[in-house]
Specification:
Blueprint (H helix, E strand, L loop, with lengths): L1 E8 L8 H9 L8 E7 L2 E7 L12 E2 L5 E9 L2 H10 L9 H12 L9 E9 L4 E6 L8 E5 L2 E5 L2 H5 L10 H10 L12 E3 L4 E5 L5 E4 L16 H19 L6 E4 L4 H13 L5 E7 L7 H10 L3 E7 L3 H11 L9 H12 L4 E3 L4 H5 L3 H18 L1 H4 L11 H11 L4 H7 L6 H8 L11 H8 L6 H27 L4 E3 L5 H7 L16 H7 L5 H4 L10 H5 L4 H7 L2 H7 L4 H12 L6 H15 L10
Helix pairs in contact: 2-3, 6-7, 6-19, 6-20, 9-26, 10-18, 12-14, 14-15, 17-18, 24-25, 25-26
Length: about 625
């Protein structure tokens, strides 16, 4: 695992300033504290910070081919590198290290730009072909690893985090109001946007190629559900056995490292299944790490302890108290742009806990999106049958008092009634949306673009899966946008802030190839049982109370905190003076949201958490940053 960055002069002639490249690389030191390296070759500069995981002594980057004409830097891990290396050696390629990164230069020599399609793993890659004067950037098919880029002032620059781009002298930091609107709707900024007008994210499964002039971007991989007529039709027992063995194979591959590996154990079925398989496949006692809460409706420590006891893991845990006032500024520093998923806080803390014992940990991201684990998927299936009466009852439902409990009945009922009669994609979004259109217009005033459809990215992805089962199409939208731009971003930044590599076995193609092809009836069954096939697969591994327990998720009691210990901090961060000075949102609207939440009339904790995250991030901006109006 590493942080990578670099630059290229678009005129193909100008050299790069080593001091600028060194400063960009230094901004990523938390991603790779073990070593650093740099290449300057004509118009291109590459740099990397390394967290040593495989081939501790010989894997420093950049890494070159035999004659030094091709160089590569990589952030990530390639899980099939041993098989690829053996095949390349048979074809006459010589290796000077035992690292997975060295495989990339030789695979490029053998297969050209298409080499990235053969990689099983998580990666962001920059490869410079000096002989042909070509730069190639690529990001893995699910977007597990990040890659930002910008084209400004005749220079193409890129990096694992926006922090690296901001180290360039004169980098433009105008805020993109379209990105702000998307943030308000989704809690994060979706690709290809970033919070800055000048920078963009390379989307998952895409590569960028530059060989002089303007770079071009193209897709090389697109995991997707098959047509409805081509879903898997084997029996549930056969598919459950297959799912368990595919997960076992993935976990086995993800345990490959020259350093200890642990598991982030939330107590849910995804992480518990990974822990069970990892304990069976590991040659030593598995290390597990859990976060708990004093509020009982949010606490899953007892489930985590059950798994730890069953598999005799070396278990570590931490009970989280509402000290978010101290931690939220740290999170704002760890995330390069506004990020409002409140589960970032426990993820940040469990990563810190794990980093004190291991360099690598497995995590369960992707299990819900692939196997059907969200209540919204149940709602998607029942809405066609009860949407009309639910919508008719909306006025009554909206008057229910607000609870501070996790996914409370009043919260779910209000959300369901709000979107029940909309078309499938719109209602799926309505149940997840943070600020609705009217609220966004209130907050942004004249800055809001009233003609912009916040779902344009959703609609484009949804259109690509026409012919697949309806629920699979909605899951695919979640995989491509919510998973990539929220959950995986959260996990990457929260873990790498502590120099911890987190791997996600559910997003291995061994697992996703099966999960994407499952019929709806094996994901959400009897209109109440979520992740049905995954639970069947986990039955031999886990206690029944975990296999069939109610989903709680990795969230925090934000509603209660913002009506209690965190309220003074929220009022300070979101004071009318601060919001007016920052100049993005209407201060009186923000104050009104605080009062409505604290009074107990509505649960606006997600909205307030988002505004707090934005305000704390904006306070860290360089002086003179502007917003496009």
């Amino acid at each position: 695992m590493c942080g990578i960055c670099g630059q290229a002069s678009l005129d193909g002639a100008s050299g790069r300033d080593p001091a600028v490249l060194a400063a960009m690389n230094e901004a990523l030191v938390h991603r790779g504290p073990d070593s650093d390296g740099m290449l300057l070759d004509g118009p291109v500069g590459l740099a990397a910070r390394r967290l040593s995981i495989i081939d501790l002594a010989g894997g420093d980057q950049p890494i070159a081919n035999e004659d030094g004409t091709v160089h590569v830097v990589q952030n990530g891990e390639i899980y099939n590198y041993r098989e690829l290396r053996a095949d390349l050696a048979r074809r006459g390629h010589s290796f000077s290290t035992h690292s997975d990164t060295e495989v990339l230069v030789h695979l490029y020599e053998e297969r050209g730009d298409s080499f990235v399609a053969d990689l099983r793993g998580m990666f962001a890659i920059a490869l410079w072909d000096g002989a042909r004067r070509r730069l190639l950037l690529a990001r893995d098919r699910f977007g597990i690893k990040p890659l930002y880029y910008a084209v400004t002032g005749g220079t193409l620059s890129f990096g694992s985090e926006l922090k690296a781009l901001l180290r360039q002298p004169g980098f433009p930091t105008e805020i993109d109001i379209d990105a702000v609107e998307a943030f308000l709707a989704f809690n994060s900024v979706p690709a290809p946007y970033t919070i800055f007008e000048a920078a963009r994210k390379l989307p998952p499964g895409h590569r960028m190629i530059w060989s002089g002039g303007e770079p071009r971007i193209e897709r090389f991989a697109r995991p997707a559900p098959p047509p409805a007529t081509e879903v898997r039709t084997a029996s549930a027992d056969v598919l459950a056995d297959e799912a368990r063995e595919r997960l076992r194979d993935s976990v086995r591959a993800h345990l490959v490292a020259d350093v200890p590996v642990g598991v982030l154990l939330s107590g849910g079925i995804d992480s518990c299944t990974l822990a069970a398989l990892a304990a069976q496949e590991s040659g030593e006692p598995l290390r597990t790490f859990s976060i708990g809460f004093e509020e009982r409706s949010f606490d899953e420590l007892e489930r985590a302890r059950m798994v730890a006891r069953r598999y005799a893991t070396d278990h570590h845990e931490l009970v989280l108290q509402p000290d978010a006032a101290e931690l939220l500024p740290e999170l704002a520093a760890a995330f390069d742009e506004p990020f409002a998923d409140s589960s970032a806080l426990p993820t940040y803390l469990v990563s810190r806990l794990a980093s004190e014992h291991v360099k690598v940990a497995l995590s369960g991201e992707g299990g819900d999106e692939l196997f059907g684990g969200y209540y919204t998927y149940v709602a998607d299936l029942i809405a066609p049958y009860v949407g009309r009466p639910a919508a008719a009852a909306r006025a009554l439902v909206d008057r229910l008092p607000s609870s501070s409990r996790r996914t409370s009945l009043d919260y779910m009922a209000k959300r369901f009634a709000r979107g029940a009669r909309l078309p499938p994609l719109d209602r799926h979004h309505a149940w997840k949306e943070i600020f609705g259109e009217d609220a966004r217009l209130e907050l942004l005033g004249e800055r809001a673009d009233r003609s912009r459809d916040p779902l344009e990215l959703w609609r484009a992805r949804y259109a690509e899966t026409e012919g697949a089962e309806e629920l699979a199409r909605l899951q695919d939208v979640d995989v491509g946008i919510y998973l990539a731009d929220d959950l995986l971003t959260k996990t990457d930044r929260a873990s790498m802030a502590h120099s911890l590599e987190v791997r996600v076995p559910f997003l291995d193609t061994q697992v996703t190839d099966l999960a994407l092809a499952l019929p709806t009836r094996l994901k959400v069954r009897y209109l109440v049982r979520k992740k049905w096939l995954l639970r069947r697969a986990a039955e031999p591994l886990l206690p029944r109370s975990i296999v069939y327990g109610r989903k709680r998720g990795f969230s925090i009691p934000a509603a209660a905190w913002l009506r209690g210990a965190l309220e003074p901090f929220a009022r300070e961060v979101l004071s009318e003076a601060t919001i007016a000075r920052q100049g993005i949102f209407d201060p009186k609207v923000v104050t009104s949201l605080i009062e409505r939440h604290v009074s107990g009339g509505e649960d606006l904790s997600r909205q307030l958490w988002g505004l707090m995250s934005f305000a704390l991030w904006q306070e860290r901006l360089p002086a003179g940053s502007k917003t496009r109006s």
